[in-house]
Write a structure and sequence with these properties.
The protein is an all-alpha fold and 271 residues long. Helix content is 77%, strand content 0%. GO terms for molecular function: formate transmembrane transporter activity.
């Protein structure tokens, strides 16, 4: 699989974070748009499999195909830049300022949202045969998910916000492990395998991914699911984004950076 040592692939991750800051605004938004659209289509794919087979595990096992495709194409998700760009800032790479980091996050988030909404409109038309029929079974499953993951958290009050934050945090622990997985190998099969494993964990456990939710809840609203735009933003997207940021940065980025780049003192052993 041409495995790279941690000191090698973590340095690659810092280089990637620096490169994303220097990317043009046009390219940043376009790549993020394609990432959001690809991931949203993968959600439709996985939910359709789960509905048709009656087995959510099969859908979860196949969902990572979307994540693998978008990263092999060099597209960017907000969850990934939450992890990579701060590493370049912490490494004091020239020109990687806090302001430019925030701008990169904002542009990627905007592109992801646009791509997710593009597929949401397609899904709305597809699940209703162009508004000529009732929402089909796959659409109903998506609507039910949207309701349970907004109204359900709202009913739990502060506890709902806390669990949302934690599910967002653990989500980007796994998703950023997928980003790292793409860097540990120099071969396509190795990269895909490295990405596939943690993405299955996040999707099957129902952790909260900010970009997935940019598709899941708007399409639910389009189809008439019983929750509001406020429910989606306050009782899902905001705590999910915050959790994604903290999880990717602390549980993956900082953990790898501090132990493989800015390492502590090493004990010297006599030879």
């Amino acid at each position: 699989m041409s495995y790279l040592q941690p000191t090698e692939f973590v340095t690659k991750l810092v280089d990637q974070g620096e490169a994303k800051v220097y990317m043009s605004e046009r390219d940043t938004v376009l790549r993020a748009f394609m990432a959001g659209a690809t991931l949203a289509l993968a959600v439709i794919f996985a939910v359709t499999i789960a509905v048709n087979t009656g087995n959510f595990l099969i859908g979860a096992l196949l969902f990572p195909v979307g994540f693998s495709m978008l990263y092999l194409m060099g597209y960017d998700l907000l969850t990934g830049v939450f992890t990579l760009v701060p590493l370049a800032w912490l490494d004091r790479r020239p020109g990687v300022t806090f302001g430019r980091m925030l701008k990169c996050w904002a542009l990627v988030g905007l592109g992801n949202l646009m791509g997710a909404l593009f597929i949401a409109v397609f899904g709305w038309l597809n699940f209703t045969q162009g508004w000529s029929q009732e929402v089909n079974e796959v659409g109903q499953a998506i609507m039910a998910t949207g309701e349970s993951r907004t109204v359900g958290y709202r009913e739990a009050g502060l506890g709902g916000w806390i669990i949302l934050f934690l599910r967002g945090m653990f989500c980007n622990w796994m998703v950023s492990m997928g980003v790292v997985g793409a860097a540990i190998s120099t071969t396509v099969p190795g990269k895909i395998l490295g990405m596939w494993m943690p993405i299955i964990v996040f999707f099957y456990l129902g952790f909260e991914h900010s970009v997935v939710n940019m598709f899941l809840f708007p399409i639910g609203l389009m189809m008439g699911a019983p929750f509001t735009l406020y429910d989606y933003i306050f009782w899902n997207e905001i705590p999910t984004v915050l959790g994604n940021l903290v999880g990717g940065l602390t549980l993956v980025g900082l953990a790898l950076y501090t132990t493989h780049v800015r390492t502590g003192a090493k004990k010297q052993f006599a030879v």
